[in-house]
Write a structure and sequence with these properties.
three-stranded antiparallel beta sheet; 20 helices; two-stranded parallel ribbon; Helicase, Ruva Protein, domain 3; Glutamyl-tRNA Synthetase, domain 3; mainly alpha; RNA-binding
RNA sequence: GCCCCCAUGGUCUAGUGGUUAGGACACAGCCCUUUCAAGGCUAUAACAGGAGUUCGAAUCUCCUUGGGGGCACCA
């Protein structure tokens, strides 16, 4: 199936008004996959024509988020490219030029209605249960008069002259033909009175100029799709392939993600913002794998995909149009799978920051030894600190009660610890495969279970009831610390009586 | 209110006229086991409802219901 597809040019076009979230990331992922698969280009374009909504730092966060996910773009505001600028605010004159062309050719007209009048008209229409729509006051102004008013400095906007009747048909890749009566369409504003183009014009012009072949975006654009098609046609341009992705719903599947919902998520250690995933211990490859499968599938059983797999196997044909509820437990599952798929050396490198974040002083040799023994015990990277922090501590402080083995007294537990201490102290090194057989023999001699004996030692050596495998852990902790920790445990048990 | 879109287990989905409706997550039980996991096995669980078309519908059509999106000088 290695395609003979033509190289695509696709763009991810977020507005810098907030955080990069899962929905955006998934759109960008699909863009990226398609571009890489076909040998085309993935472009980042910042849609910042609304200066009022501009959020400082948002663009940087988007770029950083895409890079963290591994979605390197070929052209964009901070990397340049042949179709720049890639920030729409810097393309104001270009947009105006094309708006003029539409006006000259009769596809658009100047409108001098004030926002105040417009909103009053709208309120009145709503009161009368009519559909809110521009009332057409300026639609039939004589071009010469309109031009005169423009030249006199009167504030104006440019509106698209939508056909009054007929039907506009266009095609969405996932849904087939989308047909709408032109009578239900509005004369949308193309250029605002501040001179900046509105999305509908800016995106259309830029997509054409940047030779975008596939427009992949959220389904919130579906209702304006006919207008976008009409604008393309007014310019005489071919339409790109339209791909409208379904939205993500909240985990319950009932309703879309809300601000409140997002806040609740944080309490459970989840987030919908890409900037948070690293700190929460997620791997970018897991996040990609997870969101790739929300709206796309490969076959009836394959679910684990590396980025390499995704690039090879992604296809637009298997996209689904129905909305998907975000399922964070599935993300946890994928994260576990991807952690286990890592080379231990890679895992060692990736867990390091989580230790350092908590103030641990680590060394790479030890990290390299820890990686393979925690690998199949953690689902998020940050867990490594609570599960395997004891490796980097001089000593641990067990809860005395935890040292008492199930079914035994403190006194008996102390006696077992003493015997283990005696046995272990005879070895010059704590090699796991060397000390395990005699330890098991000890268990047998004592007539106890492995769980009872090893449980005491686990708490003694790690300070925790839950830890990575005991003997491997003891090997890393090392002879001196192991013995010191067991001695301390003996003392604690004896103090209990 | 009007317009557009969507509809298979709790969730993500496979399925494009004939299948015992498949897989995954979650959940429950069992096995394995030095803890926690991981792994293995088993179980529970779905075609929203109603009309049609057809010898035969999860698959095609229509209606209803439910959900989502849009109706700005925001994107």
């Amino acid at each position: 199936m290695m395609s003979e597809q033509k190289p695509v040019r696709v763009r991810f076009a977020p507005s810098p008004t907030g955080h990069l979230h899962l929905g955006g990331a998934r759109t960008a992922l699909y863009d990226f996959l398609l571009a890489r698969q076909t040998g085309g280009q993935f472009i980042l374009r910042i849609e910042d024509t609304d200066r009022k909504r501009y959020v400082a730092g948002a663009e940087e966060e988007i770029c950083a988020g895409l890079r963290w996910l591994g979605l390197e773009y070929d052209e964009g505001p901070d990397v340049g490219g042949p179709c720049g600028p890639y920030r729409q605010s810097e393309r104001k004159e270009i947009h105006q030029e094309y708006a003029q062309r539409l006006v000259k050719e009769g596809h658009a007209y100047y409108c001098f209605c004030s926002p105040e009048r417009l909103s009053k008209v709208r309120e009145e229409q709503q009161r009368q249960k009519l559909n809110p729509r521009y009332d057409g006051t300026c639609r039939n102004l004589a071009p010469s008069e309109a031009l005169r008013r423009v030249n006199e400095g009167e504030p104006y906007t440019v509106r698209f002259r939508t056909p009054k009747d007929g039907v506009t048909r266009t095609t969405d890749l996932l849904r087939g033909e989308i047909a709408v009566d032109n009578s239900s369409l509005d004369d949308i504003i193309l250029v605002k009175s501040d001179g900046y183009a509105v999305y509908h014009l800016a995106a259309t012009v830029d997509d054409h100029l940047m030779q975008i072949t596939h427009v992949i975006r959220g389904s919130e654009w579906l209702s304006t799709l006919p207008v976008h098609a009409l604008i393309h046609r007014a310019f005489g341009w071919d339409e790109p392939v339209w791909v409208h992705l379904s939205v993500f719903l909240k985990p319950s599947g009932k309703g879309k993600m809300s601000k409140r919902e997002a806040a609740d998520l944080a309490k459970d250690g989840y987030s919908i913002f890409i900037k948070d995933f690293e700190a929460l211990g997620y791997l970018p490859e897991a996040v990609n794998n997870w969101i790739a499968l929300m709206g796309w599938s490969y076959d009836d059983r394959t679910e684990f995909f590396s980025m390499y797999d995704l690039i090879e196997k992604f296809n637009l044909e298997k996209l689904t149009p129905s909305p998907a509820a975000i399922n964070f437990t599935k993300l946890d599952h994928f994260n576990g799978l991807h952690i286990r798929a890592l080379q231990p050396g890679d895992l060692a490198r990736r867990i390091k920051p989580y230790y350092q974040r908590e103030g641990y002083v680590t060394d790479d040799d030890t990290l390299l030894k820890i990686a393979p023994i925690v690998q199949e015990h953690i689902v998020t990277l940050d867990e490594v600190v609570e599960k395997a922090g004891f490796f980097f501590k001089d000593s641990v402080v067990p809860v005395a009660e935890d040292l008492v083995a199930k079914g035994l007294t403190a006194r008996q537990s102390a006696e077992i610890a003493r015997k283990a201490y005696h046995l272990l102290s005879q070895f010059s090194e704590m090699k796991a495969d060397v000390i395990e057989p005699p330890m098991r023999k000890l268990v047998e001699e004592l007539g106890l279970t492995a769980g009872q004996v090893f449980g005491i030692l686990r708490v003694a050596v790690t300070g925790q009831k839950v830890s990575p495998p005991l003997f491997e852990s003891m090997e890393i902790v090392g002879r001196e610390r192991v013995l010191a920790r067991i001695q301390r445990a003996i003392n604690l048990l004896e103090a209990m009586g």
